[in-house]
Amino acid sequence: MISFLKAFPRHVKTAFLSIFRHLAMSLSAASAVTITLVLLAVFLVLAGNISLFTSSIEEDLSIHAVLSTDIKEEADIQFIEKEIQSIDGVKQVRYSTPEEELELYIEEQGEEFAMFRGEENPLTGAFFITVKKADQIASITKQVQQVAGIRQAVYGGTSVSDMINMLNTVRFGGMIFIVLLALLALFLISNSIKMTIYARNREISIMRNVGATNGYIKVPFMLEGMIIGFIGSLIPCLITYFGYRYLFDVMGGQIFSNMFSLQPVMPFTLEICAILIVAGMLVGLFGSFFSTTKYLHWKR
Fold first, then answer.
1. Could you tell me the CA-to-CA distances from 21 to 185, 224, 289, 300 in Å, in that order?
2. What is the CATH number of domain 62-155?
3. pTM of this prediction exceeds 0.90
């Protein structure tokens, strides 16, 4: 370990010198990382905002359970509330009085229904029920409908569930695509480093002849790969920050309505840039490691 630490500054110097000596190949490898990370950044932006959209929909999504006309006693209302609360998957139950129901109806349908305020109110009380997981809302609605004293239980309908399922599918597909992009970047930089190694086989042979171990030979290449990965991540970071900030300003921070708010520029872009830099350096590290290991695999 001590000998490694002593030699580490020399390895870093060797890595930087190698990048400048083989600038064309280094830029080729960095370009491969840049292109891949730009695509990765796009999907990270999409995935982050889809997660926010889905969360917003799930928070606003609720079941509206209307009480039967004969349910008026406080004890009966509390009993039904406990029955609903005991259903697996229910997050919260909130009682809405007949007066509150009428005010909501007037707000939605117009002031012409204000005449029903007071004793003329024909509406009954109801419950607003939020669920823990949006994909359970249909089954929970059916269970609420079967509770004694509930006249009707409705929610946003299949269109809302379908939209949530679609967003989750896109998010899952994006994750798979991100993994494929990482593998592609690993392959591209591995090939680029491999070409660099082949171009420097004479140098490697000399190092072997003077007794250098495989580990000693690998370290500069691995550092070189990390540096190339870091350089390749800088342009995607700049594109992510300035591009997303421009999009956020143009869209006014939302798409269509407040329900579809965009992720704030900061710290969202900062988090993505951190991921891109780490991903670029890891891809460079492992790409170099696999290439050098394969090339140096031999028996003394």
1. 23, 12, 20, 30
2. 3.30.70.3040
3. no
